[in-house]
Specification:
There is one protein chain. The chain is α/β, with parallel strands linked by helices. Helices cover about 40% and strands about 20% of the residues. A 5-stranded parallel β-sheet has the order 2-1-3-4-5, with helices on both faces. Strands 6-7-8-9 form a 4-stranded antiparallel β-sheet, with helices on one face. Strands 10-12-11 form a 3-stranded antiparallel β-sheet. Helix 3 links the parallel strand 3 and strand 4. It is globular.
């Protein structure tokens, strides 16, 4: 993060939407750069090194999923996807290539700003200090090893690459091993959301974790939430 205004890269090819988002973000105190297609977005992300990217899925050149994949391969940066398609497969693909959150069009500017601020707060969190942390720096649950300080995960000794949000969600479940955490609690602790309006983002990230870690660790308690148990 910069010491002054957080820098946001907005990638949006619809001029009306782009102008409205830029005006609101500038009014909220952000510095904003804009790209209107996939290749320009990748070049600009490399040049301006934004603190966060707001990224439309449907773009000329190549789509937002490919932009996210290329940007994350070079530098880890929080990504908030904008999508007009409220389809679970599209959302899972976005999460798989490194997106942290998504907003479905049409969206309110208030919701967009709240999601951006919440995501920036999360990436500013300091790493846990080994001397003062209430939990050991490395949590071992069955075949799973979660290293909080190094932010690394292994299953059966094999390292598993997780996005920042996936790691935060897994670490939250690991710290509360065996307890059933509701979606509202997970939204508050992982996403810093004060309401439970985004429960699908929790479900989508859990599905992404299961694809990477296997289906046997995270248990669904229907009507309640999720629990991390030993396999």
């Amino acid at each position: 993060m910069t010491a002054t205004a957080p820098r946001v890269l907005l990638v949006e090819d619809e001029p009306t939407i782009a102008r409205a988002v830029v005006d609101r973000l500038v009014a909220e105190g952000f510095a904003v750069d804009v790209a209107a297609d996939g290749p320009a977005a990748v070049d600009m992300a490399r040049a301006c090194e934004p603190d966060l990217i707001v990224l439309d899925v449907m773009l000329p050149g190549f789509d937002g999923l490919e932009v996210c994949r290329r940007v994350q391969a070079e530098r880890s940066v929080p990504v908030l996807m904008l999508t007009a398609r409220d389809d679970e497969t599209d959302l899972l693909v976005g999460l798989a290539v490194g997106a942290d959150d998504y907003v479905t069009k049409p969206f309110s500017m208030r919701e967009l700003v709240a999601r951006i601020r919440a995501l920036l707060r999360r990436v500013q969190r300091p790493a846990p200090d080994a001397a003062s942390a209430p939990h050991p720096p490395v949590l071992r649950i069955g075949p799973l090893e979660v290293d909080a300080r190094a932010r690394r995960v292994r299953r059966d000794g094999r390292e598993v690459h997780l996005t920042p949000t996936e790691f935060d969600l897994l670490a939250c479940l690991a710290r509360n091993r065996g307890a059933v955490l509701t979606r509202a609690v997970l939204l508050e602790q992982v996403w810093d959301w004060a309401d439970a309006s985004g429960t699908r983002v929790v479900d989508s990230h859990v599905k992404a974790l299961r694809r990477k870690l296997g289906p046997d660790l995270i248990r669904t308690v229907h009507g309640v939430g999720y629990s991390l148990d030993s396999a």
